Amino acid sequence: MDNAQVEELASKHAALHAMIDEEEHRSHPDEDLLHRLKKERLKLKDELAGHFAH
Q1: Residues with Cβ within 8 Å of residue 46, at least 6 apart in sequence
Q2: Is 13 strand, coil or helix?
Q3: How many other C-beta atoms are found inside a 10 Å radius of the C-beta of residue 37?
Q4: How many helices (H) and strands (E) does the chain have?
Q5: Are 23 and 30 in contact (CB under 8 A)?
Q6: Tens-place pLDDT, residues 1-40
Q7: Rounded distance, CA 34 to CA 43, Å?
Q8: Rg, Å, the chain Cα set
Q9: What's the pLDDT at 13?
Q10: Cα of 44 vs its chain's centroid, Å
């Protein structure tokens, strides 16, 4: 994985984090949406961790 791919994953991770934070602070958060966003964020985090583990 090259630096551009790592930066793209990190950017997507940050965007998901912002979306999760925004949804969690709504008066009636969508729990299904939060679950999907958190799952996707974890997947990206694992991909990034796998890259740095090599």
Answers
A1: none
A2: helix
A3: 20
A4: 2, 0
A5: yes
A6: 788 999 999 999 999 999 999 999 999 999 999 999 999 9
A7: 14
A8: 13
A9: 95
A10: 6
Contacts made by residues 38-44, CB under 8 angstroms, sequence distance 24+: 40/16, 41/13, 41/16, 41/17, 44/9, 44/12, 44/13, 44/16
Amino acid at site 33: L
The CA-to-CA distance between both ends of the chain, in Å, stands at: 10
Distances in Å between the Cα of 48 and the Cα atoms of 7, 29, 31 are: 10, 28, 26
What pTM does this model have?
Answer: 0.84
Provide the pLDDT for residue 54.
Answer: 63
Q: What is the DSSP string of 17-35?
A: HHHHHHHHTSSS--HHHHH
